[in-house]
Each structure stands twice: as C-alpha cells, then as structure tokens.
Amino acid sequence: MSKRDIEPSHLETLDRDLGRVSSLELATAYVAKPLVAPALAFIFIILVGIIAATTMSALNNALIIVIAAVLGAYMALNIGANDVANNMGPAVGANALTMAGAIAIAVVFESAGAIIAGGDVVSTIAKGIIAPATMQSADVFIWAMMAALLSAALWVNLATWVGAPVSTTHSVVGGVMGAGIAAAGFSAVNWGTMSKIAASWVISPVLGGVIAAAFLWFIKTRIIYQDDKISAAKKWVPVLVGIMAGAFASYLALKGLKKIIKIDLQTAMTVGLFFGLMVWAVTKPIIAKQSVGMENRNKSLKKLFNIPLIVSAALLSFAHGANDVANAVGPLAAIFQASSSGEYTTSISIPLWVMIIGAAGISFGLFLFGPKLINVVGNQITKLNQMRAYCVALSAAITVIVASWLGLPVSSTHIAVGAVFGVGFFREWDTAKRMRSAKLFEVELPRLAKGERKRRKLVRRSHFMSIIAAWIITVPCAAVISGIIFLAISFAAG
Q: What is the pLDDT of residues 213-228, one digit of tens each?
C-alpha cells in the first residue's frame, strides 16, 4: 500500500461511496419491507399446493383437489388476517397484552381450537344456503364451491387491505349463494336461511353493543364512581370475573366443543353456573390480596382486570378456531368429497389434513397480517382500557349464549366490533350526562367550537361508517364476485 492510498482525499471518496451504498441499502430494505409478508404468504400457499399434489396424486381429479387446497389455504390466511382481530384487539388496545404476546396466544389457541374441536361434519353446502339437488352434476357443484371459496377469500383480502373487520362467515355465505344462483338460478337458494343471515347484520352488533354498554355502566356505577373504589372492587370484581368464567364455560360448551361432545343450551348454562360460582369463590381472596395497599383511584382498578382479559382472549381464540375454521375448509372438504367419490348430496366429513391446512393458514395469516386489524379494533375505533376491554370480551360470550337461547343467527365479528362501538357510544353518553349535571350545579365549563366538539367524539365516525358499509355489502359483493368466477370457470371448462 502506498502513501497515496491513505491520503485524506482518497478516504473521503471511500466514505462517500460507502454512504451511497448504505443509503441504497436502506432504501431497498424500506421499499421491500411491505412485500415480505405477501411473499411469505405466497410461499405458504405454494407449499400447500406441493404437499397436496404429492399426497393426492393417486386420487381421481387430483388437479382439482390441489387447486381447492390452494384456495383453502388462501382463505385460511385471510381469516387469520381479518377475523382473529376481534379476539385480540380489545386486549391489545387495553395494553393487557403486547402485539407479540397477543399473536403468540392467538396462534396457539386458534390452532388448538381448529384441530381439537373443529367441526367434523359440515352441512353439504355451507350452512344450508343452497340445495345440492339443484346442481346438475358433481362437476357443477365443484365449480360452484371453488367460485365460493375464491370469492370469499378475495373479499376478505380486500376488507383487510382497507382496514375493515368483516364477517368471514357472511363472506362464505355470499360466495355460496352467488355461485348457486349462477349455477341453478334463484330457486336454488334457501331464502329463509338468507333472511336470518341478513337479520344477523343488525342483531349481532346491536346486541353486542348493548350488553357491553350495560356491563360498563355497572362497573362505573358500582366501582368507579364510588368514594371507596378499592372496597367496591373487592366486592364486585370477583363477581364480574365469576360471570365471565361462567359465560365462557357456557360459550365453549355450546360453540367450541361441538366435535368432542354435543351439549344442549340448558346443560351448557348449568356448566356455566357451576364454573362461575367456583371461580368467584377462588377469585375473592385473590382480589382481596391484590387490592392491599392500592391507591384509591381508577388506574389501580385496571390492574385487577389484566389476567381475566388475557384468559378471555385465549378462550375466544380457541372457540373461534373451532368454529370459523369451517369457513376455510368447509368448501374445500366438499370439493374433496365430490372429486374423490362423486358424492355431493350427503354430509361432509372433514379429513384431518384439511383441518391442518385451515389451522396452519389461520395462524400464519394472523402472524403475517393480523396486527393491522388488531390495531383497528383495539385502538382506532375508540380508546380501550382494561375495564372497557373486559366488557367487550364478556359481551362476545354472553351475546352468543343469548342468541342461541333465542335461536338467532349471529356473527362473532359483528358482536365484537359492535361491543367496541357500544362501549364508545356509552362513554360519549355518560360524558354528556355528567356535563349536563355540572351545568345544573352552575359549574362553569369551557365553550367549545363545533369542530372541536366533533374532534372530541370518543368513537371515530370515519371507522364507524366504513365498517358498517363493509358489513352491509359483504354478502352481495361476495355473491357477485362468486357468480362471475363461476361463469368464467364454466366457460373455460366448455
């Protein structure tokens, strides 16, 4: 090395070049970062296709089964990205769980729910929406199921991209309906079932919101607004935790354990009552011990709800995995049965490999894309703390039980998001009520401009309107997309 090689001008040139290379590296990484998750999702879908092709090569119509497996994997990814936010969003928004912790818990319990308690028998065509007898042949049935699966996946993917939590069940229902109409006309659709599903658009969020608001009112009046908050908490928090335990025991008995054992509503309520009383008895001394030395303020009370909130999120994930995995694998199982045996008019037994695709897809979709919708549900609709999130989680379980008792169809997505809205709107009402009371006592309050009053609304109206709009158009949009896809497949098949 000569002396000229280490002159300052040479070193400055080297530093400039290294700086340019580093800047280019950072820019490339920044641009490529949004593509990592879609790339990994694509790899997962390809792997599912390869595994299906390897294991199903000896069966009839192996190519159709492989394509269906790929579509099922795609749908499962979208369920994980969109639907799971309903379970984890409140806990994350309340800071009871970190985003990483929420994803880890959800992955474990969603997979466990899907594999252990996922429904082993599904009605022939997704929830009895269309009659199998109206299909001209097994091929037409297969095309209809493929169209339904792809349209539902595309719609949920679009909803996730725009940040709208939608019902995956309604998406599948819309897809099946659209394909059925395209294949066999309007007479193929069970319009009685469809009217019940349409009713759930209103019933689910309203019922979820009312129940969540009712529990928040109870917490505020019995605990938060009391002079001695700690004594009130020692009395009522064990009761609230017991109610949550009982509700979730009944919820899991009704919805989450259908594969293992069939339980009627009365038995489920009895199980819930037993567990509720047991948890109340166990929780009472624990809460009394935790409250020793606590300051008499709201911030101290929030800590008492952390563990119940985490447990509720895990149980909701288990029940969701057990129930909603059928949205991904139900049409896939129908296609598999029709392709391998030619039978498409009887009940469908879901093979284990199909359940594994659903469970893995939901978990992977949650891991890759879940944070976006979790953040929307937990933080962007309204501000949640531990107590408000507790009301949301409890409402989800109780609403399902009430709906089962009344025989009403409900959507878990609509319930959870409706509960978040209910909590936010109740807080707005309660705040306005207290301000009116302050005026009666001649307390001088600052006058706010119209724009500032609008800004201070506790529920973000933009999210409210966009989510409601997405709910309303989910079934018809999925139906239209499915019908178009079915016609395209029929045309291509000749």
A: 999 999 999 998 888 8
Distances in Å between the Cα of 196 and the Cα atoms of 127, 135, 365 are 11, 23, 30
Give the Cα separation of 6 and 213 in Å (integer).
73
pLDDT > 70? residue 258: no
Segment of 7-11, 135-139, 438-442 carrying the highest mean pLDDT: 135-139
**Where are the chain's structural domains?**
36-493
Amino acid found at 433: K
What is the average pLDDT score of the chain? Answer: 79
Distance CA 361, CA 353 (A): 12
Tell me which residue of 192, 157, 149, 137 sits closest to 173, measured CA to CA.
149
